[in-house]
Amino acid sequence: MKIFFLIISISTLLIAGKVLLPEATIAVVDGVAISIDERDKEVGKLLPKAYFHASLDEEKLKVLQEKALKSLIEKTLLINYAVTKKITVSDREVDDVMKKLVGIYGSKKALESSVKKAGFTPEQFRKAVRKDEILKKLHIKEIEVNHSDRELKDYYEKNKYKFREPQKIRVRLIYIKNNPQDPDGNTKAKKRIDEASVKLKAGDDFADVAAKYSNAMSRIKGGDMGYLHKGRLNKAVEEKAFSMEIGEISDIIEQDIGYFIVKVEDKKKQNQLSFETVKKGLKKDLKNKEEGKRKAELLKKLMLNSVIIK
């Protein structure tokens, strides 16, 4: 089979000042043009909510534009492939989707308003819906994976070590921050942790002392950090806590960032999770992994046999 995979500049298609592509085209995939407007709409989908009301610097915007264009090229490749497989979506199917969207938005007017705010004309939105439905059908036909219970169980039995819950301890913590910007920060922090330590040794409730003295957010829960596995605490605090008995309260632990006192409330040994416990998550993980692999392989094949102009 002859392989075509070209990424060339659109400027090479300018002949004697005559543009051979639709205006505002930034890429062409096997004859299908992708416009700046399409890319900008795709950028809107990728844009983090934090930036909705803020300006992006040029570098971040460029990264998003490249990511959006890559996504559109891949979608176009898949839609073109779906056409060769005679996968189509009828007007009635598009109408059915539109009716469902009206139900979600509460009214036709509300949907139309949302579509307009997103920068789509009614015709453009129907076209986008049709493309999405084609991609869904292609996914079901050539990419979707549904593992049987037996396949899941076989995977579980061969990979039991992946489904072990690590040893955990439930701790309460008092943390007094050492403010490095304050010349007397360490002295103040030491005085405060000493006061907390005296109260604990006098028999005061750890939760009450943590609520009053600790600088950690856990103070609002009496210093309760919940169940933690290794790697979640300051290293020195963690080493001490995992060596302690249930109910034991540590001495003051000094670190550059401040002072700690920890209490161990409970311990849980490493635990082998049952198949039934992990089954749902395992099914989802394997499905996503296998479908991602299939999609990547299909796209690789399509790109090697396509003409892509950027």
Short description:
The protein has helices at 36-46, 58-84, 91-105, 108-117, 122-143, 149-158, 185-201, 206-213, 235-242, 275-304, and strands at residues 4-8, 14-15, 18-19, 25-29, 32-35, 164-165, 168-177, 224-228, 253-255, 258-268, 271-272, 305-309.
Helix count equals: 10
Q: Give average pLDDT, whole number.
A: 90
Question: What do we call the CATH homologous superfamily of the largest domain?
Answer: Porin chaperone SurA, peptide-binding domain
Poorly predicted parts: 1-20
Characterize the biggest β-sheet.
4 strands, mixed
Distance between the first and last residues' Cα:
24 Å
Proportion in β-strands:
15-25%
- Whole-number radius of gyration? 30 Å
Name the structural class.
alpha+beta
Order of helices and strands: EEEEEHHHHHHEEHHEHEEEHE
Strand arrangement, major sheet: 1-12-4-5
CATH architecture of the largest domain: Orthogonal Bundle
Q: What do we call the CATH topology of the largest domain?
A: Triger factor/SurA peptide-binding fold
Determine the fraction of residues in helical runs and give it as a percent range: 40-55%
**Count of domains:** 2
Number of beta-strand segments: 12
What is the approximate shape?
elongated
List keywords for this structure.
Triger factor/SurA peptide-binding fold; elongated; alpha+beta; 2 domains; 4-stranded mixed beta sheet; Chitinase A, domain 3; 310 residues; 10 helices
